[in-house]
Amino acid sequence: MAVQCYGAFMEKFLLQPSSPSDQLPLTGLTFAVKDIFDMDGHVTGFGNPEWLRTHPPANHTAPTVSTILRGGATCIGRTIMDEMAYSINGENFHYGTPQNPCASDRVPGGSSSGSAVAVGANLVDFSLGTDTGGSVRVPASYCGILGFRPSHGAVSTSGVVPMAQSMDTVGWFARDPVVLKKVGWLLLQQPEVEHQKPRQVLIAEDCFKLSSIPSERLTQAFVNSVKKLFGGHPIKEVSLGNYVEEKVPSLKHFMIEGNAGNEHSIPSLAALARSLQLLQRYEFKINHEEWVRTYNPHLGPGISERVSEAMRATDENIDLCHSIRIELRKALAALLEDFGVLAIPTVPGPPPKLNTDVSELQDFRAKAFSLLSIAGVSGFCQVSIPLGLYNGLPVSISLVANHGSDGFLLNVVHSLYNTLEEEVKASF
């Protein structure tokens, strides 16, 4: 195993495009792949040495990776990930933690940790990851780069080790919005749509109150950029939690009355996160129980407890979770309509310090999953956009768009990015 600067890579190798051509959209670009994608002739490690030892080499390459290679990019290796994709921290007990290029004493975010670090540290032009509960969006935010989670089902997950298939997506990272867009159009395998300006831009004001960073620091540059490019008329504030509580009646089962007076919680979104985690545990068990019970693998702190909890999962309330998914998708589609975007914080604050005790992160994680579950449960597309540094640490904003509006969202990012970058520099 090669030791790389920033520790992003699990394995270094070179895979050239099958048909080199100056006409291909990704010619001249390099990329890395999370160690969850099958690569012909290589064992997919899934972040755990016991998994690596007990599985044979793949006999084919995941279609998403093949698509990128056919697009002209060169793969330079596979990246470290959190064990069994079951964390948003980015720390790996066995292989080490990739170094956050923005803050070396902070976690890089996971589970697509190495993929985000490889891009953030300029080791590659872009990279592939996966996002079930936040595994592209979180490390993108922590590493100060762009991260795109597509609509659920929009990009093939064939040849990818499943985590929880009701929410699994293949996502990607880039520093440049042009590269983000090129990779996206290739993976979506749809003809590029014309630029369409947002008809409405909804600011989820209650969600921004979950963040430890002042809401104006997260929204001011974004709102100024929207006004410059599209005018002020599309911008409107909404209370997303109240809307979701009203429009998603099945959530009532997961609501906890004690949260009602807690200013640091949005009860409906906290309930949404509980439904996501219940379904995630159940599907993880379906996918991996046989292997876990057969090999009893040594798992790192945090991962061990989550996997043990998943092994005890039952199908109780799983049908209710699926009802919530359907109701939420319908409700958010009605809210955003065609060509609408919802602005939320990607995460509730800057990246936590390395080796922080799990118990100290409970409140942060609860808030994080309240935000991450919006797209995770609905299946909507979401992009995390860097907003520079706050107190020396990376911060970001996320835009969410309707299911199937991935091309529109990529175009919005492309249109906004340079102006947003200028506004951030001018304002802070």
From TrEMBL:
InterPro entries: Amidase_CS, Amidase_dom, AS_sf. SUPFAM superfamilies: Amidase signature (AS) enzymes (SSF75304). It comes from the Eukaryota. GO terms for molecular function: hydrolase activity, acting on carbon-nitrogen (but not peptide) bonds, in linear amides. PROSITE patterns: AMIDASES. Residues 22-410 form the Amidase domain. Gene3D superfamilies: Amidase signature (AS) domain. PANTHER family: AMIDASE 1 (PTHR46310:SF7). Belongs to the amidase family. This is Amidase domain-containing protein. It comes from Cucumis sativus.
